[in-house]
Amino acid sequence: MTVRTRVAPSPTGDPHVGTAYIALFNLAFARQHGGEFILRIEDTDQVRSTPESEQAILDSLRWLGVEWSEGPDVGGPHGPYRQSERREIYQQHVEILLERGHAFKCYRTTEELDAMRAQRQESGNSMALKPSDLILPADEIARREAAGEPFVIRMMVPEEGVCVVDDMLRGPIELDWSQVDAQVLMKSDGLPTYHLANVVDDHLMGITHVIRGEEWISSAPKHKLLYSYFDWVMPQLCHMPLLRNPDKSKLSKRKNPTSILFYERMGFMPEALLNYLGRMGWSMPDEREKFSSDEMFANFDIKRVSLGGPVFDMEKLRWLNSLWLRELDAETFAQRFAAWGLKKERLLPVIPHVQPRVETFSDVVPLAGHFLGGLTSLTPAQFDNKALDQEQLVTVLQYGLWQLEDIRHWSVDEIKTRMFALAGKMDIKVRDFLFPFFIAIAGTSATISVLDTMALLGPDMSRARVRHAIDVLGGVGKKKAKKMEKDYQDMVAAIAAAAQENPEA
Ligand code: GLU
Asked: Is the CB of 82 under 6 A from ligand 1?
């Protein structure tokens, strides 16, 4: 048997370091067994998936040096590798389940489902919604069908009992069927859900080992059941521990930059980032910290993964990166630095903002050096100004940060609309409102527009700099943050209401 592993990201946002981590371990496992590693795009969520996000995932994994032998961009014998192009395949498979009585059409309306859930909650019943709760009497089904009402297709699931799932790291895991609902397999628009598409594709693509994040453990019973409904052999499952923030909470962009693009922009070497991800829950037999991916693959053993949540700590990563940097000879350092910071793709978008403002090339770095910077060294004194006191500065930055964290399509227009609305609502002149952002992002207000700069720097770098500025100004204590968040939510609700009343504004 040829080992075949895969990474199956959903293109719904910035390329996440967690995706790279899972990809690396799948690649390592495949390499160790002389197998294949493939990449599949799981874009069944049509509302949230975007082609830009898919491209960014492919680009950033390539930048890291993670190579796949089959995928949407390179093709392969089991394609297409993008789920949105496999609609008919899922349709055929859902038909098989319906014919065999393993799935049913469910005509329940959202109101009915909400009412059932509310009733369960009221009576303290934590049982999941089961086929017996959902299947309508035959005449009612016929009536709704004749009326052309929308339906979804759900899977049959046992009412009770224990499901045992084998995990390569954990051994047998027992899960209770009472907690597993009659999962929707196909939505009313004819598109599959993750569960159906994932199982069908893993089977048809010959995947032998599924190595994925531990947040998917609770889905495993449904998947196991689907494999048995289809009479297919289930791949071996391996759930990796989740990456954590230094405070042990789940790695999230609210606390830590999570986008691979941020680490590229910060000037980390891809070799060092990959090395660091290889240290997440895994270690070399001789415990050395610095190793290349080839060295990792040569020594790989999935059994060495430890389940304690690995902490992704930027300070540690910086230290590891410094080891990699020190080893470059001067020539390579110069080359790699230029390829990182002075490459055309990075410079060109900045030029239109810089060119009209400089008289010599030597004016460029003082004006726009922050485009190459990371988390700039700031002091509270830099924020001094007449308009806002320290507390107001922190509030403005924190409210602004919450707005920036909310943006899904990062663009100068979106940033501007949100910042202007916030300034208006806080009754602060736009100039005064933007001043602390200038300092946070560029270290000075004598530079090009901070809104343009944020748009060009991208969401993670912009948010990280604002977060850093808040820390420099003394941060926000837990108690204070609670009150601030409440005031902020009220304000956001007011902005939303105003926008609805006057959509042109
Ligand atoms: N599309 C899922 C994700 O985004 C894949 C999970 C899996 O590997 O089964 O993580």
From this structure: no
Q: Give the strand order in the sheet containing 171-176.
A: 171-176, 162-167, 236-240, 209-213
Q: Are 65 and 293 in contact (CB under 8 A)?
A: yes
What six digits make up the tokens of 293? Answer: 């991916």
What distance in Å separates the CA atoms of residue 417 and residue 454, rounded to the nearest whole number? 13
Structure tokens that stand for 53 in this block = 């996000």
- Strands 4-7 and 36-39, sheet pairing: parallel
Contacts of 22 (CB under 8 A, 6+ apart): 7, 211, 212, 213, 240
Cα(28)–Cα(57) distance, integer angstroms = 19
Nearest CA to ligand 1 atom 10: 9
Does the beta carbon of 198 sit less than 6 angstroms from any atom of ligand 1? yes
Beta-bridge mates of residue 210: 237
Of the pLDDT bands very low, low, confident and very high (cuts 50, 70, 90), residue 503 is low
Distant-in-sequence, close-in-space partners of 175: CB < 8 Å, separation ≥ 6 = 162, 163, 164, 165, 217, 218, 220, 221
Q: Which of 105, 253, 290, 425 is catalytic?
A: 253
For 70-124, write each residue's pLDDT tens digit: 999 999 999 999 999 999 999 999 999 999 999 999 999 999 999 999 998 899 8
Q: Is the Cβ–Cβ distance between 132 and 150 less than 8 Å?
A: no
39, 81, 195, 198: which to mutate for ligand 1, most atoms within 8 A of CB?
A: 198
Q: What is the pLDDT of residues 297-345, one digit of tens each?
A: 999 999 999 998 999 999 999 999 999 999 999 999 999 999 999 999 9
Atom of ligand 1 nearest to the CA of 42: 1
**Nearest 5 degrees, angle CA 359-CA 365-CA 369?**
140
Q: For residue 270, is the peptide bond before it cis, meaning its omega torsion is within 30 degrees of 0?
A: no
Q: Is the CB of 8 under 6 A from ligand 1?
A: yes
- Average pLDDT value for the chain: 94
- Work out the percent of the chain whose per-residue pLDDT is above 70: 99
Q: Is the pLDDT of residue 499 over 80?
A: no
Give the orientation angle of helix 450-457 with respect to helix 412-426, to 10 degrees.
130
Which two three-digit tokens encode residue 414?
């979106």
Residues whose CB is less than 8 angstroms from the CB of residue 95 and which lie 6 or more positions away in sequence, other chains included: none
Q: From CA 207, how far away is CA 215, in angstroms rounded?
A: 20
Q: Give the distance, in angstroms, between the CA of residue 49 and the centroid of all CA atoms in the same chain.
A: 12
Q: How far is the CA of 42 from the centre of ligand 1 (A)?
A: 7
Strand-pairing partners, residue 94, are none
Please give the distance, rounded to the nearest whole angstrom, from the Cα atom of residue 212 to the centre of ligand 1: 7
Active-site residue flag, 344: no
Cα separation, 438 vs 433, in Å, equals 10
CA of 396 to the centre of ligand 1 (A): 37
pLDDT, mean of residues 227-241: 98
